Amino acid sequence: MFSVINKPLCILLMLNTCACSTQQIYVGVATNCNGEPVEGAEIEAWKNQFFPLHLPVKIAEATSDTSGAYTLITEKSASFFTYTSEQLIFSSHPKQSVNKCNL
Questions:
Q1: Contact 45, 90 (CB under 8 A)
Q2: What is the pLDDT of residues 62-101, one digit of tens each?
Q3: For the whole model, what pTM was predicted?
Q4: Where are the beta strands (DSSP E) in 8-102?
Q5: Are 97 and 56 in contact (CB under 8 A)?
Q6: Where are the domains of the chain?
Q7: DSSP code per residue over 50-70
Q8: Which residues, other chains included, contact 98 with Cβ-Cβ below 8 Å and sequence gap of 6+?
Q9: How many CA atoms lie within 13 A of 92 on its CB side?
Q10: Among residues 70, 76, 56, which one has the least CA distance to residue 87?
């Protein structure tokens, strides 16, 4: 009798926990291969979506300022980034930094 009464409550709590998202703030600098800042670089954060169509969804976008700095604020953790500069250096998430130089 105890487990039957608590099952709907457990399922409700699990669904409520899974539906929550954690805001992510990505802060960094867009540069060229010489390490110089790139003004006006377009940076996009994408999230892989597995339901219903298995297509990525853009979750944030930003443009770098005169010093190459940008901030992306997302409701979910990003799967990957697209950008028009040669390098993205994330001070907030160093492991996410990407580089098109020396390819």
A1: no
A2: 999 999 999 999 998 899 998 988 888 888 888 888 888 8
A3: 0.71
A4: 24-31, 42-47, 57-63, 69-74, 80-83, 87-90, 98-99
A5: no
A6: 22-99
A7: -SSS---EEEEEEE--TTSEE
A8: 81, 83, 87, 88
A9: 12
A10: 70
